Amino acid sequence: MNIAFRVDASVHIGTGHVMRCITLAESLKSHASKIVFICKNLPGHLMEHIEKKEFLTISLTSEPFKQEKDAEEVIEKVENINLDFIIIDHYEIDQKWENLLRAFTKKIIVIDDLANRHHDCDILLDQNFYPSMKQKYKQLVPSDCQLLLGPKYLLLRREFYNVLHRKRGEFKNLLVFFGGSDPTNETSKALLALAELKLKNVSINVVVGNANPNKDDIKGICEKIGANYYCQIPYMAKLMEEADLSLGAGGSTMWERSFVGLPSLVTMVAENQCASTEAAAEFGAIKLTGWHETVTKSTYMKKLNELIHNENAFKSMQLKGYELIMRNENKKFEQHPLINLMFNERC
């Protein structure tokens, strides 16, 4: 079984697409003889990180993205591999690219969050939460496309399935993580707010990715305020399990926090996060700080002050997070419905 991922990471794009594809690839290892990641050579591309996970990588040119050119370059790289699946996690790819690759693979799988373009795919996964989820892709995919929609299809790393249920209430541990690259530098804003708040008897854990261009400055701020600093760690689930509250962005990590029952203040740092983040806030699973351009150090101070002494808010977010993510329906790491569908033709 040969599987290729077409996915990119960069300082601008962020790391979330690649990280969730690595999660899926890890769970496919026992099924596949070859798994290869096809990525553009962009600043912050993460190909070294992918290779450390023992997956093959194919580097594409870093010139501006054009679907036809990208498809031609990919075909040149994979035409002799005899692919069973191409898995695409890329906002700039639609049915035009997929049509060109159709002859070079048995099946096409798309991972998406936007529902804003047509796809020629056999399976589509969107793990986000929206009102009227089932209607989002109705006119955008072939009639026989299998749709996996909603947080119950969340792609979770193995570590998250070992997290224990823990009731939250008292505020003693804060986790700060705004994604692998944090392009709007929310981490620094939040830390400057924490420096002024001077929280007593609260442990602060700050996580950044290697792709974060401000990581050295953030490390310096952490040292000044006595916060613990972590870079590109493999044990995020453990820090989430220990935390009572998190400051973070929307996207995949927001659903991970809900899965472990971690209440969070969420800032929207990309337009593709807005609809699902606002829906999660309306559902009661998170508290929203706002759009990153309007969120300041003062915003974080105000929101934290409103929340940290409200035990009922912590408990409510935890329960609503569990309800939203449908935690009881999430099976073991190797039993994701997508994998069942890929190899058993059933979900």
TrEMBL record:
Residues 175-270 form the Glycosyl transferase family 28 C-terminal domain. InterPro entries: Glyco_trans_28_C (IPR007235), PseG (IPR020023). Keywords: Membrane. The keyword Membrane applies. GO terms for molecular function: hexosyltransferase activity. The keyword Membrane applies. The active site is at 17 (proton acceptor). Substrate binds at residues 157, 256. This is Glycosyl transferase family 28 C-terminal domain-containing protein.
